[in-house]
Design goal:
alpha/beta; single chain; globular; about 375 residues; 3 domains; Rossmann fold; 7 strands
Length: about 375
């Protein structure tokens, strides 16, 4: 088998950028290949972040693109192929054509460890490739392993294997409890998440060690590795940690997260963008569309140009309707009410409110 490659995708957002910094600082001996999937429709702030990261990392971030041989920008190439049919939550062709396909072409058939920046305070799994040669690792979480690995390791059919692995671990007086948990079958009253949490509570390093040894019985990329440094990783990083990493490193927080103040009928508030990705991303909230219209009117105008033949970015509301003065006022008023309800949130960051309102968007956009 070929040498295992270590790769890390930079989406242009805070989490993947912080992960690149974190891996450089904590695992400098790993030869990580950094890449970004360029749709040609990113904000200038995204490209600035990538430039800043390259300086910090001392390494080029490879630009991947779909439609390599096309004279058009990647998104424009594929929008023509789809006859003007805009991507949506029900048809995310942009994710496949502009993100996943270029990534899987980049790694080919080599065994690959892909590091993903999903935080410890997020409840989502993220991208897991269907290709057996690509294995995802999540350094910011208590559980660094992907769901498919956990499914296999904790399966009732593998209890004897897991039990043997735990018997050979030094658990400092917790061996009996570990044996009880490992040998307990998954059922309607004892699900996989409960079993996982109980084993992690007994020891994260020990759990990681058992999983790593279990992987030797599989065809995952890590099966061929003699050692893996993240086995000893017990860090759990949340949103506040991400901002600290970005600020302390000098790379800086992506500029589009910066809050911009506005006022409606004497009430003041502020808005920002909550995610990376294309400037016309259909996962944006309406207040973010208003932000785009007011902060980058030239980009908003370009987004409007794609709306034709009945296709719109927002279901049942063309952008031309959204930017009417009364509609903008209503969107801002509703946003102010929502932020007031969230005013007791522990986080000081506005984008927490934005992200919580409609979720983090397409996880595959952030690989």
């Amino acid at each position: 088998m070929s040498k295992v490659r270590h790769v890390l995708g930079i989406s242009g957002g805070k989490d993947s950028a912080a992960l690149a910094i974190y891996m450089k600082q904590n695992y400098p001996h790993l030869d990580i290949e950094y890449y970004t999937s360029d749709t040609g429709k990113e904000l200038d702030e995204t490209y600035q972040l990538i430039d800043n990261l390259e300086i910090f990392l001392g390494k080029k971030i490879l630009r991947l693109t779909g439609a390599d041989n096309s004279p058009e920008l990647p998104f424009d190439h594929f929008i023509k192929m789809y006859n003007g049919y805009l991507p949506s939550s029900n048809s995310r062709w942009c994710t496949k054509k502009l993100k996943l396909d270029p990534f899987e072409k980049f790694v080919g058939n080599d065994p690959v460890i892909s590091y993903v920046g999903i935080r410890g305070d997020e409840d989502r799994e993220g991208y897991i490739s269907r290709k057996s040669n690509i294995q995802s690792i999540f350094p910011f979480r208590r559980n660094i392993w992907s769901e498919d690995v956990i499914n296999k390791f904790l399966a009732n059919t593998n209890i004897s294997i897991a039990s043997d692995l735990y018997c050979n671990l030094s658990l400092n007086g917790k061996s009996q409890r570990a044996s009880e948990i490992v040998n307990s079958k998954l059922s309607a009253t004892f699900n996989q998440q409960q079993k996982l949490n109980q084993l992690l509570d007994l020891g994260i390093k020990e759990f990681n060690s058992a999983v790593f040894k279990f992987l030797k019985t599989t065809n995952y990329p890590l099966a061929t590795e003699v050692a893996f440094p993240l086995i000893d990783n017990e860090d759990v990083l949340v949103r506040a940690d991400i901002f600290k990493i970005l600020e302390d490193s000098g790379v800086g927080v992506p500029a589009y997260y910066k809050e911009v103040e506005f006022e409606v009928d004497g009430k003041k508030s502020s808005y920002a963008r909550s995610r990376s990705g294309c400037f016309f991303c259909f996962y944006q909230q309406k207040i973010e569309w208003v932000w785009l219209y007011e902060q980058h009117p030239e980009l908003f105008a370009k987004a409007m140009e794609y709306e034709k033949d009945g296709y719109t970015w927002i279901q049942d509301e063309p952008l031309a309707e959204l930017i009417k003065p009364e509609r903008i006022k209503k969107i801002k008023e509703e946003y102010i009410k929502r932020t007031e309800r969230k005013s007791k949130s522990q986080s000081p960051y506005l984008l927490d409110i934005l992200a919580e309102a409609e979720g983090e968007g397409c996880a595959s956009c952030f690989i």
